[in-house]
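Researcher: Let's continue the batch. This sequence belongs to Aspartyl/glutamyl-tRNA(Asn/Gln) amidotransferase subunit C, and it's 98 residues. Same format as the previous ones, please.
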Amino acid sequence: MSEISRDEVAHLATLARLALSEEELETFASQIDGIIDNVSAVRSVDADGVEPMSHPHSIRTTMRADEVEETLTAEQALDQAPAAQDGRFEVPQILGES
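Model: Same format as before. Here are the structure tokens for Aspartyl/glutamyl-tRNA(Asn/Gln) amidotransferase subunit C:
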């Protein structure tokens, strides 16, 4: 058992600039202990010969092949725009800045 102390949790809370009550410090200390115990249990599993996985299910990637394709030119992209200026879309101001 890791036994994270209340003082260590208070120190971490100070570093993170969190204001925690005494009750929260005690609660978090026991919760962190539980988390560390669970991680330690997982570390003790013999994983020799197990392939690393990026997903819990055997799936094929859903990403398409990275292929170069023709895209619109700037003129083609702007030809249907309600307003354009200097080769860019012109949109209404929303912050009142000029």
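Researcher: Any comment?
Model: The mean pLDDT is 87.
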